[in-house]
Design a protein that fits this description.
The protein has a seven-stranded antiparallel β-sheet. The longest helix is centred in the last third of the chain and has 22 residues. The protein is built from two helices and seven strands; from the N terminus they run E-E-E-E-H-E-E-E-H. It has one domain: Transcriptional Co-activator pc4, Chain A (Roll). It is of the alpha+beta class.
């Protein structure tokens, strides 16, 4: 199937209570082109899954992007930050940029496959 699910480790900068001894937590990156071809999802431990624009994630790897509930920006040469705002507070999550780029590449391949199957 064309669903992409990628497991990663990330650092939650603002919430020490769920970090392990290494400072990283397991995160799930998801993309389902049949559900919504323009959206990606990020699941953090113990929190609801966040759904936001795939283009926001892509833009935020190059320059600060977003406003409102989700913001993304590059952090140095090898990291990126995704910031989530909710009524319960703010979670600032730091990823390796290569992890997010790999995930985005996989989403574009899945979208192309889903489109090809739909046009048969």
């Amino acid at each position: 199937m064309s669903v992409v699910e990628q497991y990663a480790r990330a650092h939650i900068v603002t919430d020490d209570d769920i970090q392990d001894e290494h400072g990283a937590v397991p995160v799930v990156l998801r993309y389902d082109p049949l559900d919504d071809p323009r959206a990606v999802r990020i699941g953090l431990p113990g929190r609801p899954e966040w759904t936001f624009s795939r283009s926001l994630l892509e833009q935020g790897l190059r320059a600060p992007a977003g406003s409102g509930d989700v913001r993304v920006w590059p952090c140095g040469r090898v990291q990126a930050v995704v910031e989530f705002h909710s009524p319960h507070g703010v979670s600032v999550v730091q990823f390796e940029t290569k992890t997010l780029l790999r995930f985005l590449r996989r989403t574009y391949m899945a979208a192309a496959t889903a489109t090809a199957v739909a046009h048969r």
